[in-house]
Task: structure prediction
Amino acid sequence: MTLAVLILTHNEAHHIGRALASVSGIATETFIVDSGSTDGTVEIARAAGATVLTNPWVNYANQFQWGLDNAPITAEWVMRLDADEVIEPDLARVIAQRLGQLPAEVTGVNLKRKHVFMGRWIRHGGRYPLILLRIWRRGLGRIENRWMDEHIILERGATVVFEGGFSDVNLGDLTFFTDKHNKYATREAVDVLNQRLGLFPRDEALGDASEQATKKRGVKEGFYNRLPFGLGPIGYFLYRYFWQLGFLDGKEGAIYHGLQGLWYRFLVDAKLLELERALAEVEGRKAKLALLARLTGLKLPAADAD
Result:
């Protein structure tokens, strides 16, 4: 088995050593794509044996695809790992034992991610397991062209699920969490606007990504994004917190589900309303794109013509 691990970083000194250590026993190659860290991230990564590449940031999808296209990957398999994620020892053993034994028709591996918030594993509210395609045969996977909620798309082949610990454990505080989700809300509002207005190209289907991710995308874009203002966030929170038993996650769960399941979703709705009203004042795709880029500060694709 040969496995390359690709991680994006920007000021992740508090995470990157832990992430790299978690894959040290299974990765034959590790690549970091950094976007200008100033906190020692690059030095830590190099000391751990990773190859570091640098590229200016546009968005996650653009940066990760740049890494796939430019990192000198020779391994048969590629893994996507975020800097704040950890492959736990039991999953590392499964990967080491099974990956090299998979039949040729299997081209992707889904992992079951768990989220740890304020030191607590959030087990309810539909948050576990999140089944994500994170390992694929080199050359057969690419990342979706989206601003938010981007997944890996397989070119062909079947997928399997590996059991074992795969954790998202961000060490940031609540200020970091809310600031990050405020930025996420802007990006997601842009994706919803693009779904409605067709301002620039985007991937429409998840292809051979996990069945769970595909179903969630379908419900979100086919139903949730079409609900009247404010109804979606309230309904989603009530469903998640009570029907999906989010209240069983204790105080930490109340904070997490309240912020991520209600406040964040409402913030997306509010930003979407604000941006839609602004764009209604200008005519033509080119003018709308230019205004949207100015309002959000995002490096959106330029329109050649209306």
Q: What stands out?
A: The domain at 3-168 is CATH 3.90.550.10 (Spore Coat Polysaccharide Biosynthesis Protein SpsA; Chain A). The longest helix spans residues 250-279. DSSP finds nine helices and eleven strands in the chain.
